[in-house]
Structure formats: structure tokens, C-alpha cells
Design a protein that fits this description.
By secondary structure, this protein is mostly beta strands. The protein folds into two domains: 68 residues, no CATH class; 54 residues, no CATH class. Helices cover 11% and strands 35% of the residues. The protein has a three-stranded antiparallel beta sheet with strand order 1-5-6, with no helix packed on it. It has a three-stranded antiparallel beta sheet with strand order 3-2-4. Strand 7 and strand 8 form a beta hairpin. The longest helix is centred in the middle third of the chain and has 15 residues.
């Protein structure tokens, strides 16, 4: 039996504008700072972050850092689907393709939202012993 999908899974892409600097003689080392669409530092930054930004500007003038300007950093991740538990009607996030459990009643679901048999019945067809399932 399949549960009702409350929220389908989806790919999420987030963009963040950052002013980025890197060291001339240290590939991969540098710093970046959050910016608004106009290129201004975001308000509310910690004073240490503002001090670091000022240091990056100084090091750029001294040719020890390169100012890449404002770059669009993209983050991608997957938001798993959320279903309604068939037994207790609480939300269950299907965050595992093999097994996700309802934190309220303990019902187990596969990655497609299908209710699985109770765990004490698992392995019946394959000859596995319940003790094999202890680490699940």
C-alpha cells in the first residue's frame, strides 16, 4: 500500500552572490564575502568578516591576492519527498531509497512510499534471522 505524497521530491538550485578573492601564490586558498545584487557587502556581517574583507582589498593592491569580483555561487541539492504515514497520519520524509521510518509510530516505508511489512517478518523468504536486522 502506498502513502499519500504531501510534497514531491525535487532538485533545488540556490544562487548566492559573493565577492571572491584568491591568493596569487596559493592555489585554492582565498576568501569570499556575501553580496547583494548591487555588489555591496550584506548588512549584519560580523566585524571580523569586515576586517577580513578590508585585508583582502589591501592584499589585492599589494598584488598578493586576485579580486575575482562578484561571482554567482551555485549550490544544488535534493529535497526528498514527504508522505503521510498510513498508520498515524504524521509526516514521513523519504530520505533513504531503501528504508525510511515514521518517527511517531515506527512504520517503515521504501523509497517509493510503499508501506513495508513489520520488521519481525523481514527475511522470512530469504532465511535471514531477525538478529541480522539489528543495525537497521
Amino acid at each position: 500500500m502506498s502513502a499519500t505524497i504531501l510534497k514531491p521530491g525535487r532538485q533545488v538550485e540556490e544562487h548566492e552572490l559573493r565577492r571572491s578573492f584568491y591568493y596569487v601564490d596559493e592555489p585554492g586558498a582565498g576568501a569570499s564575502f556575501p553580496r547583494d545584487p548591487q555588489g555591496n557587502l550584506l548588512p549584519g556581517l560580523h566585524p571580523a568578516a569586515i576586517e577580513n574583507f578590508t585585508n583582502c582589498l589591501r592584499l589585492t593592491e599589494a598584488a598578493r591576492m586576485v579580486d575575482e569580483g562578484v561571482v554567482d555561487e551555485v549550490s544544488r541539492y535534493y529535497e526528498p519527498p514527504v508522505i503521510e504515514c498510513i498508520r498515524c497520519h504524521h509526516e514521513v520524509t523519504l530520505d533513504d531509497a531503501w528504508l525510511s521510518s515514521c518517527h511517531h509510530c515506527g512504520a517503515d516505508y521504501n523509497g517509493s512510499g510503499q508501506l513495508l511489512a513489520p520488521r519481525h517478518l523481514w527475511g522470512e523468504e530469504t532465511g535471514e534471522h531477525p538478529a541480522d536486522l539489528v543495525n537497521l
